[in-house]
Amino acid sequence: MTALRYVYAVCRPLSAPLQAQLTGVAGIPARQLEHHGLIAVLSLVPEADFAEEPLKEHLEDLEWRTATDRAHQNVIDALTGVTTPLPLRLGTVFRDDSGVRVMIEEREEDFRRALERLEGRVEWGVKVYVEEEAEQEAKEDGRPAARPASGRDCLRQRRTRTVAHQERWQKADEFARRLHERLSGYAEDSRLHAPQNASLSGACGRNVLNASYLVPRARSEEFVELVDRAEDDTPGMRVELTGPWAAYSFTGSSNCSAC
């Protein structure tokens, strides 16, 4: 059976071997390939599943893609704990070791520049959600809104809700803007992403901030404390922190998954 090279990331040489139990896609152990002083972390995967056409079909299978994405991320997370990896896109596959070496040579300058800039840094993700109005009202008074006594009362309630709705979103936008400014001032770099669609993400509430921050690993604890304190600033807002991740949003290389 022909084995292809599924590449997860490029990094500098590791000070210790990869964990023996570290497995990647399809449950296959990850290994290292060194070239020009850089390391490609990869797995030998079966051509029957990872050649161009079968891989394209598999990636359209949600269950297969989810499992593969989880395994891919598992390797990236393990690398992030010991080095600064430059993650490659899900499904980056080469025919043989020579193909991997050619890729490294073609992107060597970009890889080295990115590794120099990102060394010792990690990415943190911060999202701000505004709770649904009905959910927030229930928290505030613990009972459903009273039924209107008349048509005029109904119109008055509707106008009140409209004004409250507008003020609510204005307040949310201002909170998100202030938080982003505060975190960006602490981080070395930041990226604003498009708000997530609740129907796709499954998260409760409306997403008003979706950002990534590049932070020195040594200062991450202080960054986390900043985010934790922000949660108490405004009722009705939920701040979600994720990370630390490999610096997906800051690699600046066309071969990297964030680009």
TrEMBL record:
<keyword id="KW-0304">Gas vesicle</keyword>
<dbReference type="Pfam" id="PF06386">
    <property type="entry name" value="GvpL_GvpF"/>
</dbReference>
<feature type="region of interest" description="Disordered">
    <location>
        <begin position="133"/>
        <end position="153"/>
    </location>
</feature>
<comment type="similarity">
    <text>Belongs to the gas vesicle GvpF/GvpL family.</text>
</comment>
<dbReference type="InterPro" id="IPR009430">
    <property type="entry name" value="GvpL/GvpF"/>
</dbReference>
<protein>
    <submittedName>
        <fullName>GvpL/GvpF family gas vesicle protein</fullName>
    </submittedName>
</protein>
